[in-house]
């Protein structure tokens, strides 16, 4: 079952964020707090949206996303920040159901893109995304400013 996340799902989502970061060998970079995620999802000006996958009454997966905008298409799109299904629940269709829900939202709202990034070594994720018809954007390279570089730039 896929549903919109509620404030009560925040602890489970944070736990899975940590699991995903550990899998991606980046657990040391996770700094999100319960309060930050709650505010981002349910505060006065929510910047983030979430859906969760449930199995037997337990949250086993999540999708965190936000709106982006395509100047070429002239419409919003969805940028999928995280998609994660707990290892013991994989193969049950939860990931595909989460992606299908985001695609449904795009179609319903007239958005023309659903985009995300995936680590180039994550072969299981790449195979899954290709299996649902996603096309890798090989000619694009992601850049990021964080920490000291981000603080230094405005000087």
Automatic annotation (TrEMBL):
Domain of life the protein comes from: Bacteria
Entries under InterPro entries matching the protein: Acyl_CoA_acyltransferase, Diverse_Substrate_AcTransf, GNAT_dom
Alphabetically ordered keywords of this record: Acyltransferase, Transferase
Its EC number(s): 2.3.-.-
TM spans (from-to): none
Coiled-coil positions: none
Pfam families: Acetyltransf_1
Domain N-acetyltransferase stretches: 1-155
Any one GO molecular-function label of the UniProt entry: acyltransferase activity
SUPFAM superfamilies recorded: Acyl-CoA N-acyltransferases (Nat)
UniProt enzyme class: transferase
Protein name from the UniProt record: GNAT family N-acetyltransferase
Source species: Nonomuraea mangrovi
Lineage of origin: Bacteria, Bacillati, Actinomycetota, Actinomycetes, Streptosporangiales
């Amino acid at each position: 079952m896929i549903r919109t996340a509620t404030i009560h799902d925040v602890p489970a989502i944070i736990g899975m964020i940590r699991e995903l970061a550990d899998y991606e060998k980046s657990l040391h970079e996770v700094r999100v707090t319960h309060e930050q995620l709650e505010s981002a999802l349910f505060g006065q000006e929510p910047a983030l949206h979430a859906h969760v996958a449930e199995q037997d009454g337990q949250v086993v997966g999540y999708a965190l996303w936000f709106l982006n905008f395509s100047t070429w298409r002239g419409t919003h799109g969805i940028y999928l920040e995280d998609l994660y299904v707990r290892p013991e629940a994989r193969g049950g269709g939860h990931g595909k159901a989460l992606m299908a829900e985001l695609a449904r939202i795009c179609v319903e709202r007239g958005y023309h893109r659903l985009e995300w990034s995936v680590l180039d070594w994550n072969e299981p994720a790449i195979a899954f995304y290709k299996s649902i018809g996603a096309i890798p954007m090989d000619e694009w390279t992601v850049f990021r400013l964080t920490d000291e570089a981000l603080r230094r730039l405005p000087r």
